[in-house]
Design a protein that fits this description.
The protein has nine helices and ten strands. Strands 1, 2, 3, 4, 5, 6, 7, 8, 9 and 10 form a ten-stranded mixed beta sheet that branches. The radius of gyration is 19 Å and the shape is globular. It has two domains: 159 residues, Ribosomal Protein S5, domain 2 (2-Layer Sandwich); 120 residues, GHMP kinase, C-terminal domain (Alpha-Beta Plaits). The longest helix is centred in the middle third of the chain and has 15 residues. The relative contact order is 0.19. The protein is α+β, with helices and mostly antiparallel strands.
Length: 291
């Protein structure tokens, strides 16, 4: 029996600007997404129906039934392409990434499911059509489908890949305090802010990326820090580690990232932060080009 596998890399917002709030209540954003070599792992075997078993360190934090984003993504794919994939799949998800953490772990799981079903389809699924289905699941899911560095705008539907991307490394720290994205948005002092500064389709080197990031921000950081003050403390501590180019919250939090030029610097910073924030989830990894 064939075994299918997909990795679901963590998404990190190096910058996130909230530019407007639409009449339908959705917020328009401009963001630079990258993906870390830290991932949930999804595998599946052919089955009569779509089923899901969840394991891993964060399995208890997510539903394993129909509300899980893996099964929601499978249902959305089959609704859009009823005769594309084989009857059913027995999914097994290893949940390595913290949830409600601003690193898109659920979105990455959904995107991995869509990629898996597209890869097993009886006919070719166009990427643009897959993006449309992904957007119906969640705003971060389209970018997670390809999992390459990209500029994202609108509510997640506009993607501009930024490749090649300079070699760099991340330290991710989450205080293991879940944070509600709607609550963070409800505390925004302004929903109409300047967009990202102009950027070419690629950054020539890490220095140019770091200089560009100095002129950006995460508009959700201030309201999130009111809810979880540890975000600010972790950002300050990580920013002081040797080699850290920038320390900032990702997404709506509460994960904080630090950007480094070398893996040794990232690993050293990670070790130092584990000692100080020993009750937090701390990981270091390179930025990857694709899932």
């Amino acid at each position: 029996m064939t075994l299918y596998r997909q990795r679901a890399p963590a998404k990190v917002n190096l910058a996130l600007h909230v530019t407007s709030r639409r009449p339908d209540g959705f917020h328009e954003l401009e963001s630079l997404f990258v993906f870390a070599a830290l991932c949930d792992e999804l595998q599946a075997r052919e089955n009569q129906d779509d089923t899901l078993v969840v394991s891993g360190p964060f399995a208890a934090d997510i539903p394993s039934g129909a509300d899980n984003l893996v099964l929601r993504a499978a249902s959305a794919f089959r609704e859009r392409w009823p005769n594309a994939a084989a009857g059913g799949l027995a999914f097994e998800l290893v949940k390595n990434l913290p949830v409600a953490a601003g690193i898109g772990s659920g979105s990455a799981d959904a995107a991995a499911t869509l990629r898996m079903l597209a890869a097993t389809s009886r006919f070719e699924i166009e990427t643009e059509a897959l993006y449309e289905v992904a957007l119906g699941i969640g705003a971060d899911v389209p970018a997670c489908v390809t999992s390459v560095p990209c500029l994202v705008s609108g509510i997640g539907e506009n993607l501009l890949p930024v490749v090649p991307f300079p070699e760099c490394y991340l330290v991710l720290i989450n205080p293991l305090i879940p944070i509600s994205t709607p609550e963070v948005f409800s505390r925004l002092s302004s929903t109409s802010n300047p967009g990202l500064p102009g950027v070419a389709k690629k950054f020539d080197d890490l220095a140019s990326l770091a200089m560009w990031l100095d002129n950006t921000r995460n508009d959700l950081a201030s309201p999130a820090t009111v809810i979880v003050p540890e975000i600010g403390e972790i950002s300050d501590d990580l920013g002081k580690t040797q080699g850290c180019l920038i320390a900032r919250m990702s997404g709506s939090g509460a994960t904080v990232f630090g950007l480094f030029a070398t893996g040794d610097e990232a690993d050293q910073a990670g070790r130092a932060m584990r000692k100080k924030w020993h009750k937090s989830w701390v990981a270091s990894a390179p930025v990857v080009a694709s899932a």
